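yo

u said u wanted the structure for the complex thing, so here. seqs first:
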Amino acid sequence: MKKVKNIYMKKRLSILIIAIFMVTAWGCEKDSEFLDVQPNTFLTVDQVFSDPKLALSAIGDLYNRQVDFSGLDNGWASFTDFSESFPSENGSAYYVQRTGWGYDSWGLDWYGSYQYIRDINLYMQRDSASTGLSDDDRKRFYAEARFLRANFYFEMVKRYGGVPLVLMPLEYDYSGHVKDLQLPRSKEADMYDFIISEAETIKDILPTDINEKSRASKGAALAMECRAALYAGSIAKYGATTPAVSLPGGEVGIPASRANDYYTIALRAAKEIIDGNTGGYKLKTAPDGSTMSQLSDNFANVFLDKASPETIWFEDFQQGGKTHAFTTNDQPYSFSDEGGDAGRLDPSLNLAENFEKTDNTFAPFTTTTGSGAPVIYNDVQDIFADRDARLAGTILLPGGKFKGQTVDIWAGYRLPDGSIVTSDEAGHLKPIVPGGQPVQVVGKDGPINGLELRTQSGFYIRKYLDPTVGSGRRGQGSEVAFIRYRFGEVLLNAAEASFELGDNATASMYLNMVRARAGLTSPLTAGQITFDRIVHERKVELAFEGLYFYDMKRWRLATYRWDGVPTTLADLKTNIGTAKKHSTQPWGLWPYKQYDPANPDNVKWVYKETLPALVTGVNRFLLGNYYTKIPDGSIANNPLLVRQPNQ
Amino acid sequence: MKNCFRYILLIAVIASFASCEKDNYTAPGSFLTGALTYKGDTIRVERNQVPYQLYQYGFGAVGPISGTFAQDGSYSQVLFNGNYKLIIPNGQGPFMWKQDASGNPDSLSITMSGSQNLTLEVTPFYMVRNAQFGYSASDSMVTATFKAEKIVTDPDMMKDIERVSLYVNNTEFTSGGDNIAFTNMAGGDITNPDNITLSVRVPFETNLSTFTQGNLYARVGIKMVNVEDMIFSDVEIVSIK
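structre next:
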């Protein structure tokens, strides 16, 4: 009995000794080796800023966080509104049913914006302190971060006017006092001066390479400078017409005396790009002798061709990285890659009729004769003949082609007595006359009032619509890039700046370059250049590029354009091309087939202007809408932020 | 089973004690009501377009309590008792609101202890006087006559008339945003501001229900240059039967 116990004791002892040995042997490792484990879930600042690839991926995140007003990854709805298009999605009908915009519309996330700026400032601080990067890399990354910061402040000043300019990472010292962190709003003019001077400082550090489109280049810096100076100039000049839209401290509003200085800067920056100092940017043109439809295709390809010599800076999309759903959301319904996902963004007649005739005159689409009888067309597209090639390049018209198929847009049969046979179901078969054979009585792509995802205006969008196979699938998405700065806009900026500086001859030269590409080959003379011409050209060339709204704001035209008065048919068809024309409700143009078997006019086409039934609201832009409201919470946190005017 | 009930009873009693804690505040119960006036006449505006802001200090972060005037110029707000400051933001309303030396809207101090009625005396640029409305069944025209009286005559501050408008609607909400018919006359076309006549045809063909309803609502307004909000007459019921 005792012996047995002893054996157990011995065994226990030996286990204990082994255990102690094992544990203490661990302790023989040096503290420094045991505790200093390299984390495998994040990289340290030193690691990132000693490897150009890691530093590049860090700035890639900053590129990705840039914001756009309309953007292909902001959702299709960021292109709608302002009566430029009709939103064909039932959940979005409020765009055409409201009677105005809240003062907080179009704002950015204030907190997120300054977090982004802080991240850029941190990047710049760490990049300039780094020792592991080559001198060239370090300088280039630094200049890119400065470009992103300036471009982001540009996005802020367009929305808010002057905002606090934070140019270094602010640190809280845990003292319980935040006075040092509360910065007042800068003057609006100082914001633009900052953007211009940043661009001037960094332009020679950034590469001069027109193939560098997704990263900042010298061309991008100058294009930003050019646009910023132009905006500042027009706010100075046209802001004088709305004295109520200004603040005594200059946070909103720029003195009229500075207009010419800004226009001069805009013209100089544009000329640097046009003269080839930034590489050979040029318009993407079709070969000589191209037909109008080839010119339209060429214009559509400006936005599809990633190697286009016109693109200066874009937000790129790629399979495996990020793609977007613009084509999924907006493709024609009847040959959608994704059943039931299509047709949301329908350009309005208000926009379409702005594309002028090839003889440089403005005219509404002719739907009726002088006596009110409908005009009968042989082909569905004949009504659009002899128009600016950008019409068919921007808008997918009835009878237009996408992915090799023809869109089926027509609203019904029109009988000789003027009555209409149609259906509330797209592509529906039914007899036209009682007892007749059932035939299709309405297009598969609409338009039918209230039938979402098919056009309700008679048009689909073509700009950015991706013809690649499978681009309309939800899972695959589209790779089409969103162009932020392009040479065409630089030319229009140069034309506007020249015009404002009194040099109509130069203005007409630049305008004619853009117009010739669109098939408007008879040049405008210097005498024909007016403010309305400049406004018009930007509207049609830059439609759906996120610039129209800011144009209306900086020219102080928004209160005329969206005046809260319903748009009648007579309003629609008159004063086309006039800057102050109002446009408060999106109209459509609906094609009908003429049914008249006894007559040669059978199955020919008639058109009718139609206000989609869902459009019940009117757009009304108030003086307080010119500058987006700074959130009350942010003002409470920082009482130095003065309120916007008229709010 | 008996035990079980005992526990339920115990839990219920404990839970009911938790509710005995007082709420932080009683609900606000003091009404601040009133209207915009000028020498005893109310000033009529478009609904939801002319805002006012109330500030209450002493509770940390300060943000405005915002409201808008009704179309008869009245306002009403339920508040806690305490001290408030009321402003009308710059550039709002067809009238002048006092400003301080640095151009900010001057505030009006209000002490709430129980409900109170407070008229806000302002100086409008114009007043609509003697608005008369008539209806002619033969051509379905609504006709209005009125006088545009210029109140602010100081050349530095006075405003010119941009246009005068007549609005007709089938509900009492009648303005530029809510109407079935309207007509404008540009300021330059007014020959005699003491006697302005406007008329507009009512499109009954697209508003059949209005016709059966038997009456219309109409009002006239004055839009001034560089002033966003219009000043209106009272809404009048116009019988069409």
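Chain B has two helices and 19 strands. The interface with chain A takes residues 61-64, 89-92, 102-103, 176-177, 182, 226, 228 of chain B (CB under 8 Å).
cya
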